[in-house]
């Protein structure tokens, strides 16, 4: 994912991001966040052929690995919902992020938005209901 | 490996009733990470709490199914779903587990069990409440009657819903059955792929047996009392209606922008599920076809819905024959308009190319719209090179045949130009209309943008940006355009595209080698030599392309050695141009090697002594030119291997036309002077000069034994390939060294 992201960034002529960005106070907008899709052939590293949807936010990248017959539009939507919530609850971009000390936070989030790896067709209101439950 | 006692502890904590959720999640996560775990005593049989059951299942499903855990989980889930759940428990946590189970091992459920679930799913999809839920206070019981009655659910645009509940229904709070509706739809595709066809299927297999059931099913779908239908058929009916409703709902303008994204995802899912249903029961085809044609008409002009056009096209590809429907307009729009307008959308580009790969047999028909549109397809690659290069490596062989080879050859070499042109096209359309006035034909364009609208350059751009194959058009007209685009050559996207070209070129030749006949090979060689002058000016790009072209040139000569004789005019011209030694050294060197190797009567009876002599003279003049010692002017340096290969080829030709031997010998003897002259030693490095001298000496020695030379250099064709014939660089030195040693035996050397 890292190389895809770098290549996409460089192709659009954007300057490469600074090493340690300041965490902005406003919610990070994902509108222009670089994102993409690519395929991995069987055997490397997954036994079957998979498609990877990825999203990059500042210095971080998120990847969602899908089976060939899964809905890629939904995968992109799911990523765009997971990323800000993970960023916020784990404070991933802040200094001294203690991500490794709080694995259950990520797990609970994933369990709600991607239970057992199942992508969900949630409209905005449903999403609010999910957020309320957490 | 974790201590057994610790594992036991984890399991106990996980299942203890008062444990906070976070701890439970953590325990489950640790146990999953340690899978497969032999000390696991967890079982899902006794667990009543659905949330806990979900967590425990996640651990069990991670165990690599050594003890049929998958089946056990599946059985338990179905059992729980069958019965009425206790108060406060929700089935919604179990559906994702079920989806996982059937993906891992569809055989875990019996037909009876799948019928039970199918029946429930049909109900969840079709009969969820259309009243909004109430807020659940933390106590878990309903609050006082002062709470307002919840209203009906609405559509995404705010209108009150008048039809059944779907994932696109909006409310402030949701009921349990509405949750189940969402979950059921989210796993519907997987479920239908697994169990919707005749008998048990794995998610990846196609079901073509739906045809057989058409007679029977045509009766059942018109039945008013659908409860009489077998569960599978009933689910199909409800699922079909659900998809129809979703498609209608996607027509509404959402109040929240993000709901628009979901609408599109739902649309794609709905069309795909309809496609699956029609494959499993062809009686649905007639209903679906008319519906989807209307949908296509509605969205084909809207760029934001472009991704949905792909599954629609797939549907028609699968079913239009059965419905005797003409869907050519759909394919035409998809392949002509979409790539030209939306090449810059990376997700669409990816899915479009996948679609092409999935339907690769379409490209084999010469006259089809799919085949004709390949120039359009390459726009996706030109713009989105890194993610799509591996996809195009898979796709290219299907686009290539004798009819398209030449055009694709040119296209590949001009791929970075295409990127540049697309960039200019995008920038041009983004300009405000005031700046878009057509430029004055008399004035030469100053920038690329101006050139884009300039009348003289327009046709060049149009050719490059064409949507259809145009084999008769001459690509030479692009020469001025390539120069014009020079200013964009350092654009990062252009450079990324340039990196994909060598890979594709190698693949191109590998595929072409399988079917090309003599005339096509000749054509390719001529074009190869021509195009070496007409490449887009990106430095690393040119070197890489030369490298590939030169090795492929050799390959073509191997396939069709007679081309040296048949194309002698073009080859003489190329190898007689001194500047080629500098500018296109790789191609030159390999060309000269090929001449030495294949210019022989054993490869082509038409090879005459005159021809050999003519080639000899040309190459001799070249070698003379580059080894000339100019006392006053500075000595330009040429690639040492060019010198070596020229010497070797001249020797080989002399071996076949033995009158030439004295000339070569004399020339070779002069190499010592060349190598030792101060002007030369200052420009070439010592090892190279030494190599040249050694090579010259070996060749001279070989010529002292003309019959041996003749054998070495002109073995009969058809003889099993000996070592002397195999490698360009290896065999000749080997042969020469043997011969040299025979002539000047070193002490202690035993010939053998």
From TrEMBL, chain A:
The protein's name in its UniProt record: AP-5 complex subunit sigma-1
Any GO CC annotation of this UniProt entry: late endosome
Disordered: region residues: 1-36
Lineage, top ranks: Eukaryota, Metazoa, Chordata, Craniata, Vertebrata
Regions that span the bilayer: none
Biological process annotations from GO: double-strand break repair via homologous recombination; endosomal transport
Domain of life: Eukaryota
InterPro entries in UniProt: AP-5_subunit_s1
TrEMBL record, chain B:
Organism annotation: Pelecanus crispus (Dalmatian pelican)
InterPro entries, A to Z: AP5Z1, AP5Z1_ARM, TPR_AP5Z1_C, TPR_AP5Z1_N
Organism taxonomic ancestry: Eukaryota, Metazoa, Chordata, Craniata, Vertebrata
Domain of life: Eukaryota
Span of domain AP-5 complex subunit zeta-1 C-terminal TPR: 391-742
Domain called AP-5 complex subunit zeta-1 ARM repeats: residue spans: 262-379
Family annotation (Pfam families): SPG48, TPR_AP5Z1, TPR_AP5Z1_C
Protein name: AP-5 complex subunit zeta-1
Residue intervals of the AP-5 complex subunit zeta-1 N-terminal TPR domain: 1-221
């Amino acid at each position: 994912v890292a190389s895809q992201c770098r290549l996409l960034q460089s192709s659009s002529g954007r300057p490469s991001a600074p090493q340690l960005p300041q965490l902005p106070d406003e919610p990070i907008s994902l509108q222009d966040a670089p994102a993409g899709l690519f395929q991995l052939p069987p055997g490397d590293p997954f036994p079957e052929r998979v498609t990877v949807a990825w999203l990059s936010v500042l210095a971080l990248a998120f990847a969602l690995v899908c089976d060939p017959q899964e809905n890629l539009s939904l995968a992109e939507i799911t990523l765009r919902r997971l990323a800000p919530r993970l960023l916020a609850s784990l404070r991933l971009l802040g200094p001294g992020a203690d991500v490794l000390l709080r694995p259950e936070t990520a797990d609970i989030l994933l369990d709600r938005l991607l239970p057992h790896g199942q992508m969900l067709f949630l409209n905005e209101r449903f999403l609010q209901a999910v957020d309320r439950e957490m | 490996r974790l201590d057994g006692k610790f594992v036991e502890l984890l399991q106990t904590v996980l299942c203890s009733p008062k444990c906070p959720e976070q701890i439970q999640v953590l325990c489950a996560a640790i146990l999953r990470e340690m899978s497969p775990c032999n000390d696991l005593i967890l079982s899902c049989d006794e667990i009543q709490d659905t949330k806990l059951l979900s967590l425990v299942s996640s651990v069990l499903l991670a165990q690599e199914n050594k003890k049929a855990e998958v089946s056990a989980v599946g059985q338990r889930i179905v059992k729980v779903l069958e019965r009425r759940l206790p108060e406060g428990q929700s089935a919604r946590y179990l559906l994702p587990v079920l989806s996982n189970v059937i993906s891992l091992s569809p055989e875990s459920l019996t037909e009876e069990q799948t019928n039970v679930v199918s029946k429930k799913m049909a109900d969840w999809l079709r009969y969820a409440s259309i009243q909004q839920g109430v807020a659940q206070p933390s106590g878990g019981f309903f609050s006082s009657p002062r709470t307002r009655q919840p209203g009906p659910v609405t559509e995404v645009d705010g209108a009150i819903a008048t039809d059944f509940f779907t994932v696109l229904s909006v409310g402030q709070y949701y009921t349990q059955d509405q949750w189940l509706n969402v979950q059921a739809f989210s796993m519907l595709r997987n479920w239908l792929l697994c169990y919707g066809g005749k008998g048990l299927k794995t998610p990846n297999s196609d079901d073509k047996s739906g045809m057989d059931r058409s007679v029977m099913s045509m009766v059942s779908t018109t039945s008013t009392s659908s409860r009489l239908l077998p569960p599978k058929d009933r689910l199909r009916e409800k699922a079909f209606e659900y998809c129809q409703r979703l498609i209608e709902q996607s027509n509404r303008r959402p109040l929240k922008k993000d709901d628009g994204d979901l609408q599109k995802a739902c649309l794609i899912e709905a069309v795909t599920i309809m496609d699956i249903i029609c494959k499993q029961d062809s009686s649905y085809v007639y209903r679906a076809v008319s519906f989807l044609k209307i949908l296509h008409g509605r969205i084909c002009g809207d760029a934001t819905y472009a991704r949905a056009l792909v599954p629609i096209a797939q549907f028609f590809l699968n079913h239009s024959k059965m419905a005797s429907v003409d869907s050519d307009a759909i394919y035409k729009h998809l392949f002509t308009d979409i790539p030209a307008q939306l090449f810059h959308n990376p997700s669409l580009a990816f899915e479009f190319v996948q679609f092409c790969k999935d339907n690769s047999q379409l490209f084999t028909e010469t006259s089809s719209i799919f085949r004709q549109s390949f120039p359009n397809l390459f726009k996706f690659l030109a713009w989105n090179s890194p993610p799509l290069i591996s996809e195009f490596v898979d796709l290219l062989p299907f686009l290539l045949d004798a009819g398209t080879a030449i055009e694709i050859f040119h296209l590949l070499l001009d791929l970075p130009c295409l990127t540049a042109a697309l960039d200019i096209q995008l920038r041009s359309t983004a300009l405000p209309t005031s700046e878009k006035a057509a430029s004055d034909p008399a004035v030469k364009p100053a920038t690329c943008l101006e050139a884009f609208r300039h009348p003289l350059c327009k046709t060049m751009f149009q050719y490059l940006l064409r949507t259809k194959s145009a084999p008769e058009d001459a690509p030479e007209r692009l020469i001025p355009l390539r120069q014009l685009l020079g200013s964009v050559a350092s654009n990062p996207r252009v450079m990324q595209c340039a990196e994909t070209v060598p890979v594709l070129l190698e693949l191109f030749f590998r595929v072409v080698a399988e079917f090309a006949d003599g005339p096509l090979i000749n054509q390719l060689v001529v074009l190869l030599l021509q195009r070496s002058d007409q490449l887009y000016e990106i430095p690393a790009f040119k070197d890489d392309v030369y490298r590939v072209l030169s090795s492929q040139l050799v390959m073509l000569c191997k396939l069709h050695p007679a081309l040296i004789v048949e194309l002698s005019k073009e080859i003489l011209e190329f190898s007689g141009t001194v500047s080629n030694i500098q500018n296109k050294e790789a191609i030159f060197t390999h060309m000269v090697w090929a001449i030495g190797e294949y210019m022989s009567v054993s490869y082509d009876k038409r090879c005459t002594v005159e021809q050999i002599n003519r080639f000899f003279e040309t190459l001799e003049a070249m070698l003379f030119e580059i080894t000339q010692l100019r006392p006053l002017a500075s000595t330009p340096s040429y690639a040492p291997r060019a010198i070596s290969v020229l010497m070797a080829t001249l020797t080989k030709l002399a071996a076949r036309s033995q009158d030439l031997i004295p000339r070569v010998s004399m020339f070779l003897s002069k190499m010592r002077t060349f190598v030792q002259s101060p002007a030369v030693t200052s420009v070439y490095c010592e090892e190279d000069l030494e190599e040249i001298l050694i090579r010259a000496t070996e060749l001279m020695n070989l010529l002292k034994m003309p019959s041996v030379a003749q054998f070495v250099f002109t073995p009969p064709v058809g003889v099993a390939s000996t070592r002397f014939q195999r490698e360009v660089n290896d065999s000749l030195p080997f042969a020469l060294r043997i011969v040299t040693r025979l002539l000047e035996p070193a002490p202690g050397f035993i010939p053998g």
